[in-house]
Amino acid sequence: MRFMVLTQYFFPEVGATQARLDAMCTELTRAGHEVEVVTGMPHHPTGRIWPSYRGRLYMRGQRNSVTIHRVWLYAANGSGLKRILSYLSFMITSLAGLVRSRRPDYLFVDSPPLTLAVSAWAASRWWRRPLIFNVADLWPDSARDLGIMQDGVVLRVAGMLERWIYRRAHYVTAVTEGIRTALLQQKKVPPSKVLFLPNGVDTRLIRPIAPDEGLRRQLGLSRKRVVLYAGNHGYAGALDQVLDAANALAHHERIHFVLVGDGPQKPALQSRARELGLANVTFLDPVPLEELPRIIALAECAVVTLRHANVMRGARPAKALVMMAGAKPLVLAAEGEAADLISRAEAGFVVPPEAPLALAQAIRSLLSDPAEARQMGLNGRAFIQNHLEWSLLVRNWLSQLTGVPTPSSGVQDGSKGKNIHERVSTVRATI
């Protein structure tokens, strides 16, 4: 089969969306299918087109047997009018990439942004081919619930566009169980339309490796017990709670927090770290996924945090899965689906979101028992290999799409893991 993937964000940008789509496309080609991608010039997360791509209206390239068509767009980050203009510009210029592509058997469009539904629908009608609308974020619900946008004209128009594309798409793919439930129960998408393709990991790429002591010295982390966060520094992650946990553990001289990545909240986080005088926090630039195992190897545990909001209960952060694949135990500050997954995998501790003292205590407890931490790390990697390996997920998704059955590769219910409330009932004076 031939697939066309339409997305505003793609490799070589670093991020959950980019990693997910790159892995999906690679697995489709490994399975013998043809894949073309139409995307924008790389501009995430800085909001500026990368220097080597500036001044171009169109570029064509190859990656892992995938043909990539890149078109100009108005680059912007954050929220507000400029971000909307960025979405609208790519909605229009993406058509230039689509007309240069071969007629596919399926057109797969990634959302957000919702505006891509318009150009995808137009191409689907022109080609007379089925449209698969991939929902990685229930926007505009998430924008409203997180307080990023207030009810008004923009959200009303977005809601109308969302309902319009759900009616016209041949299939709607959910990235999490929470999104799938919302599509069926709240959005009233017919069950026959709804497919499931959760985030996964390529465990051949993300794997445990020996620590690079030269890199450790280069980063100033010699003799440090590293607590790692690697991912987007955005509003949904509420990374202030990580800084507050670092502040609570500042008197433990060997415990050191490393935050890898970029995003709209990073300057404010760096400023706050300076205000608090946090000598136990290091910010690093984002690295390609291929280089991340070298950073992961330096850590004793990883943290993943989400904001306390109803919409976040249905989130399943890809960054948590990557840490699990790297065999690192997790401290997860979240509720809902992500918390259930970590508990099923017995891959770490779960604490409430935006409770930094509980987060600090969980980190301290995990570091105090290296044998248990190591076992949790091994549990996490085994869980990914058995349930969330990309090759399994894509094969399962194809069977949903075509009706040709394959052995089940979905996440299975397992025994409940250890919640931090089972181990730490109060924040002890050790903090």
Key phrases:
14 strands; globular; eight-stranded mixed β-sheet; disordered C terminus; 431 residues; six-stranded parallel β-sheet; alpha/beta; Rossmann fold; 2 domains; 16 helices
Structure description:
The protein has helices at 16-30, 81-98, 116-127, 141-145, 153-168, 177-185, 213-218, 240-248, 266-276, 292-296, 318-325, 337-345, 356-367, 370-387, 390-402, 420-423; strands at residues 2-6, 34-40, 58-63, 66-71, 106-111, 131-135, 171-174, 194-196, 225-230, 255-260, 281-284, 299-305, 330-333, 348-351. The chain has two domains: 2-196, Rossmann fold; 213-383 and 413-423, Rossmann fold, CATH 3.40.50.2000. 48% of the residues are buried. The chain has 431 residues and is of the alpha/beta class. The longest helix is centred in the N-terminal third of the chain and has 18 residues, at 81-98. Helix 1 packs across helix 15 (390-402).
In short:
Helices cover 39% and strands 17% of the residues. The protein has 16 helices and 14 strands.
What's the helix and strand layout?
Blueprint: E1 2-6, H1 16-30, E2 34-40, E3 58-63, E4 66-71, H2 81-98, E5 106-111, H3 116-127, E6 131-135, H4 141-145, H5 153-168, E7 171-174, H6 177-185, E8 194-196, H7 213-218, E9 225-230, H8 240-248, E10 255-260, H9 266-276, E11 281-284, H10 292-296, E12 299-305, H11 318-325, E13 330-333, H12 337-345, E14 348-351, H13 356-367, H14 370-387, H15 390-402, H16 420-423
Parallel strand pairs: 1-2, 1-5, 2-4, 5-6, 6-7, 7-8, 9-10, 9-12, 10-11, 12-13, 13-14
Antiparallel strand pairs: 3-4
